[in-house]
Amino acid sequence: MDLRMYYQKIRDVEATIPTQYVVTISKATDDGGKSGLPVEVTRPVAAKMVVDGWAVLATAAQTTAFQQQQAAALKAAQEAAAAARVEVTMVSSTDLKKLTDDVSKLKSGSKPAKE
Fold first, then answer.
1. For every residue of 52-114, which 3-state class applies, written as one string?
2. What is the mean pLDDT of residues 4-17?
3. What pLDDT, in 10s, does the model give residues 33-78?
4. Is 23 exposed, middle or buried (0-12, 13-18, 19+ CB in 10 A)?
5. Contacts of 40 (CB under 8 A, 6+ apart)
6. Distance CA 89, CA 99 (A)
7. Contacts for 6-10 with beta carbons within 8 Å, 24 or more apart?
């Protein structure tokens, strides 16, 4: 294989890609590569993958679907992280007693004692 032609093909494909990042769809390969998996890569990596026959550029609909899926996954991960956070406040038994007394006094209508 002529390396000059190979790298020229990569540059030609890279020139046709309008954005810095592009979604590619993988193709099945002899070494076990799975077909149909979308991945977002940089323009030079995408061009090399296309020239090597490992992937094709995704259509606009495939790109939109992939980006929506990624946004939903990010939101779910952020919500799970927020739900996992637990705030704990340590209260001594005397402070707890004062708080419960104050709450019961508020419920009964009298004012709690000031410290």
1. HCCEEECCHHHHHHHHHHHHHHHHHHHHHHHHHCCCCCCCCHHHHHHHHHHHHHHHHCCCCCC
2. 95
3. 889 999 999 999 999 999 999 999 999 999 999 999 999 999 999 9
4. buried
5. 21, 22, 23, 24, 66, 67, 70
6. 14
7. 6/51, 9/51, 10/44, 10/47, 10/48, 10/51
> H-helix or E-strand containing 4?
helix 3-16
> In the numeric block, which tokens belong to residue 52?
């090597």
Q: Distance (Å, rounded) from C-alpha 113 to C-alpha 24?
A: 68
Q: 3-16 vs 43-52: helix axis angle to the nearest 10?
A: 130
Show me where the domains of the chain are located: 3-108
Distance CA 82, CA 80 (A): 5
> d(Cα 13, Cα 11) in Å, to the nearest integer?
6
Q: pTM of the entire structure?
A: 0.66
Name the amino acid, one letter, at 51.
V
Sequence-distant contacts of 107-113: CB under 8 A, at least 24 apart: none
